[in-house]
Amino acid sequence: MKNLFYIILSLSFIFITACSPTGKGINNDRKTGLDKDIGSILGEGLIFGGDKTKDNSTSGIAINSFLWRAALDTISFMPLNQVDPFGGVILSDWHSDIKSPGERYKLNIYILSRQLKSNGVRVSIFKQTHDINGQWLDAAVNKTTATQIENSILTRAREKRVSYKNQLEN
After folding, report:
1. Distance from the CA of 102 to the CA of which of 46, 86, 134, 151 falls in 20 to 30 A?
2. Under DSSP, is residue 50 helix (H, G, I), strand (E, B) or coil?
3. Distances, alpha carbon 16 to alpha carbons 13, 46, 47, 108, in Å
4. What is the CB neighbour count within 10 angstroms for residue 76?
5. CA-closest candidate to residue 60, choices 39, 76, 37, 81
6. What pLDDT is recorded for position 91?
7. Residue 89 forms beta bridges with which residues?
8. Residues in the chain where the model's pLDDT stays below 70
9. If residue 170 lies in a helix (H) or strand (E), which one and from where to where?
């Protein structure tokens, strides 16, 4: 039943994001190879709730669609507690690995930018361990773990972007 919920949630998100609010696709500048217009859902950013104005700003909330999808892919093994595609927030529920049942982890992922760059995603990790009385106690997390997860998300997002650009060319 829980899997059905995640499937429906994923399909709903795909359906919502398949519509471009600006109606424009990527406009690739042949001289520089850079995207000039990023108003499309499949371009550099994902715009919800608004169109670009004449000064090239947006009236809606924007996150990077590749980072969003990569973040969901990266933590797909964890149960999700809250997902906000408009604000770019993914909060997981506690997850215990079968190999270490005395530990559990929770992730908060924030997509902060429309651009696919390293400061466009932030990950917070929380860890708890079981004590001898059966209580969950907060534990320290290695500081590099969040960076490793951020790097995994960024790598996956780049792969998704390259795949998308290859589909456009074919």
Report:
1. 151
2. coil
3. 5, 11, 11, 23
4. 10
5. 39
6. 97
7. 84, 110
8. 1-61
9. none
